[in-house]
Amino acid sequence: MKSGTLLVACLLLSAFSFAQEKKAEKPKYNQELATSLGADKYGMKPYTIVMLTTGSTKIEDKAKMGELMKGHMTNIGKLANEGKIVVAGPFLEKNKENYRGMFIFNTKSKEEAEQWVKTDPAVQAGVFSYEIFPWYGSAALPLYLKHHDEISKENP
Fold first, then answer.
1. What is the DSSP string of 130-152?
2. How far apart are CA 2 and CA 156, in angstroms?
3. Whether the Cβ atoms of residue 125 and residue 75 lie closer than 8 Å to each other
4. Which uninterrupted H or E stretch holds 53?
5. Tens digit of each residue's pLDDT (9 = 90 or more) over 129-141
6. Which of 30, 44, 57, 112 would bridge with 107, disulfide CB 3.0–4.6 Å?
7. pTM given for the model
8. For residue 134, how far is the Cα from the chain centroid?
9. Residues near 116 by Cβ (< 8 Å), separated by ≥ 6?
């Protein structure tokens, strides 16, 4: 083996070893944070997912539909500010289930999630319908929201 090849091999091996060491380090457990987020011993907690589907009401009036969508977005912001919704967003492609978007609500109660989704003007108007599912995910999920405003220049 030539010395240049040996040097490259040693550097790659050192970099790989360093990367493995960094990867192996586990962050220190933070009981206060875990408790504040409602985490179980796995760092997880129950949520409720609401899948928005196409509703039975078709609104042809673009101004009326625009008003409903503005209300829909305002309601999402309100629920997020209240800590009730931790994820919301539309699907980017059509799908066989007719799912239009989804919410992840910060509750394990399907009844509570249904009360919250019914505050949406587009749901009230029948433009969207919904399906509700219990879900188990990382208790840290709500923490990403505090950074969203830092990375968005405009709101839809």
1. EEEEEEEEETTGGGGHHHHHHH-
2. 59
3. no
4. strand 44-54
5. 999 999 999 999 9
6. 112
7. 0.78
8. 14
9. 79, 84, 85, 105, 107
